[in-house]
Amino acid sequence: MALDVYTxxxxxxxxxxxxxxxxxxxxxxxxxxxxxxxxxxxALQLLEALDRRHPQNPWVVTTRALVQIEVGDAxxxxxxxxxxLEQHADHDFAIVLYATAAFQADGLDAAKKAIHRSFQRSxxxxxxxxxxxxxxxxxxFQSRGxxxxxxxxLALAMRFSPDRERxxxxxRLLEFDNDVQVPYLLRSVHALPSITISDEVNQEAKKAxxxxxxxxxxxxxxxxEKLATTNADQPTLWHSVGLCRAWDGEESAAATALHRAAxxxxxxxxxxxxxxxxxxxxxxxxxxxxxxxxxxxxSIPSVGRLLTALDTGDRLFRLELPPVGPEGEPxxxxxxxxxxxxxxxxxxxxxxxxxxxxxxxxxITVFDADPETKESPEVDVTGLKGSDFDxxxxxxxxxxxxFAVWKDAPEEQAEWVPEExxxxxxxxxxxxxxxxxxxxxxxxxxxxxxxxxxxPTLPQRALQGRTPKEAAGxxxxxxxxxxxVYVLDAHCLRAxxxxxxxxxxxxxxxxxxxxxxIEADTxxxxxxxxxxxxxxxxxxxxxxxxxxxxxALLVHHDRFLAKALQVALTREGCRGELDMxxxxxxxxxxxxxxxxxxxxxxxxxxxxxxxxSQPNNFEKVWSWDLRELLTRLEDxxxxxxxxxxxxxxxFYSPKxxxxxxxxxxxxxxxxxxxxxxxxxxxxxxxxxxxxxxxxTPDAESAAPAGxxxxxxxxxx
Length: 716
Hints:
about 725 residues, Serine Threonine Protein Phosphatase 5, Tetratricopeptide repeat, 7-stranded antiparallel beta sheet, 29 helices
């Protein structure tokens, strides 16, 4: 297709093509056709010839550099553009293209200055390319564990993106905010504070804000730090320095500035705790007291023989794996947990106690050959650096024998655990068929011990080497202690435990932070995570309540989410806007996951009542009964389980016969004999509605629960 000579010239001069580079148009069309037909090498040859005839022509140079980047020779494109920019320093396309080439060739750190220049100069004309750079930076920061920087660059990419590309980045941002493995304190907005000190300072602060608004956080941080150095008692300046450094990925400098800000917010304890909490989390990322995760890899001549050998290891416990993972990805050939004691000492489920559950000290993963990637079979031993991992390597080598060829030494992975959290972190190995409810009960017992006796007596770097119990007696340490409790809250949430924060503070004798002050017109979009947690839910308008519910469902802070959903359910103005099925299911799941089983049954029953009120409700009611069955199967001794099974066998099974194989699989996993097994069922009317909301077809006329014939299961 011929170029329109009346369109702006691709060289970027601002003139029409007819009055600028029209003599290049025919040759550049040939280049374009070669690129479109996947002939980049031929296109480069033509561009090199054009470059000799028209040296430093912007159209030729930028096109040539772009093709070099696309064929994987980013270094050549970088060098070409660097030379060009020495003569054409203001060429917007060359600026963003150079940043892209430098990023690919040299990595983020070396290219950051060039990238920030492109943010300032190229955003208006090339927003898609600038957004792409911001998104790529987010991915790098996330891989490094720099979560505040990752989130802020994702938000920047979404803001820069044209409408047609914004949805994809929005989804990435939602996935980030929903990732429970990222501390919730780092999965939300942290707004720069308002600065009102003096006209001169305010003017410079506005300049720094402008740099921050386009993602140039290193420049903004430098400007804020210059102001903070000459106005050392101003907490808002140090607060701004800390956030800009964190968004720029400089977490050690960020933590230092935020600690300083926290100490200066003497009249604003809530903001002080906000700064101090983030600072303590960032300290974990930069402190030398960290335990890296290690990996020892080996090649495998025969996967089958290796598995046979590993199965004989007395401390190697093989897990039962599904055919595919939860996302449909292929699973490893086998996974073994390396135990702290022999398998022969593993008690039966009925004899398990907190003291007798075996602890996992490392893991062995065996991978079969991958025909798609051509990767060879491999065995990996992974665990935290230390004596336990050394023991695991010895056990793996001894068990594998000649069926694995190991590397000379293990390697550090890009993962680590703060030393301070090791006493709060553990993994158990449960014997097969251990009921889920029993596992949760034991885990709750372990958490109670940790929170009552272990954590309060652990020395912490953030408390100057004192324990929380010691520091709580010092009024001057209230901010640091409160922050350490919120950090504990984040750790518990990642581990799947719902911390009773108020109870922890009460045991320490520390006054909690007051509720966040809010008005009817207060916007919630700029609140920090700790401000969200302090919202007075009963004082929110319906619109604010719905916004709070949506945010809570996304971030999934379990304690706050449960409170927000329960308050929303009491509002008639909210109920019509809520997805009631999701609300009741979430409340049931939260209660079940945290050991409140009776509360879970209550929410399941509320969901079932809501479903029954809907037209054409058979499938809706059935789905709630199925959820209840799954929950009760977690405890095979549940007295209401036989009646519910009876309902599925005698009422649902004739109507949905295709469900029987799935139900039998559920019973097998739970260790409950199939009610369809020989002699497994004695027919009867099954009783009526139980206290747990169990229903039979004759519920209205049935005798009171417990007076009719019952389902009999073998072994009962």
